[in-house]
Amino acid sequence: MDKLRYPSAAHARPRRTALAVVALLAGAIGLGPGLWPGPARADDDPLARIRRLEGTWLVVDASGQPTDQVASVFRVTANGHSVEEVMFPGSDHEMVNMYYRDVDEVHMTHFCAGGNQPVLRLVPGATPDLLELQFLDISNMVTMNDEHMHEARYQWLGADRLRIEWRTFRNGRFLEASRIEMLRRK
C-alpha cells in the first residue's frame, strides 16, 4: 500500500499567500466574509421605493376608510436586495410578488393564483408618486393569448396610502383593469 503524500510546508506557503490575497481583494471590492455584497443602500438602489412599502396594507372601502381585509404584506428580505409581497394572505386567491434587481433593472415575478408566473420590469423615469411595471416574460403558459397579468401601476396617494392597478391580458387584448386602494396599518 502506498503512503499518502502530503505537501510539504514549502508547498503550502504559496497557497496560503494566494488565499490571503483573494481575501484582501474580496474585502477591497465590498464582499463580506461569505462573499456576498453588503446591504442594499437606499440612496442608490432602484428598489428603495418598493422597500419603503414594508408593512401590512389594508383594503380601503368606497368611502375611503380602511377595512379589516389585508390586501398585501410587504417584507424586505435577502439583506435588502429583494422585497416579498403577499397579496390577500391566507385566502384562496393568495399570490406572491417578488421584487428584485437584475443588474441595473428592477424586476418583479408575480406568482399568480392562476398558476402562471409573469415577470414584469420597472419602467425607468416614472414620477416619484408612480411606479409602472411592464411585461417582460412568463413561465407556465401555453400561448400569449392565455390570461395573465401584463402590467401594473403603483400610485402613492400619500406616505401610507397606495392605489394599485393590474392589467390582465387575454386573447390579444387587455381586459378591464383591477384596482385596489390600500392604507398601511399603523
Model description:
By secondary structure, the chain is mainly β. The chain has two domains: 1-38, no CATH class; 48-184, Calycin beta-barrel core domain (Lipocalin, Beta Barrel). Helices cover 13% and strands 46% of the residues. It is built from two helices and eleven strands. The chain starts with 8 loop residues before the first helix and ends with a strand. Mean pLDDT is 83; it is low at 15-36.
Structural class: mainly beta
Shape: globular
Mean pLDDT: 83
Going across the biggest sheet, name each strand in turn: 1-2-3-4-5-6-7-8-9-11
Major sheet summary line:
10 strands, antiparallel, barrel
Low-confidence region ranges: 15-36
Describe this protein with a few key phrases.
single chain, 186 residues, Lipocalin, 10-stranded antiparallel barrel, globular
What is the structure about, briefly put?
By secondary structure, the protein is mostly beta strands. 13% of the residues lie in helices and 46% in strands.
Give the secondary structure arrangement, pairings included.
Elements: H1 9-28, H2 48-51, E1 55-60, E2 66-77, E3 82-87, E4 95-102, E5 105-111, E6 117-122, E7 130-139, E8 148-158, E9 161-170, E10 173-174, E11 178-184
Antiparallel strand pairs: 1-2, 1-11, 2-3, 3-4, 4-5, 5-6, 6-7, 7-8, 8-9, 9-10, 9-11
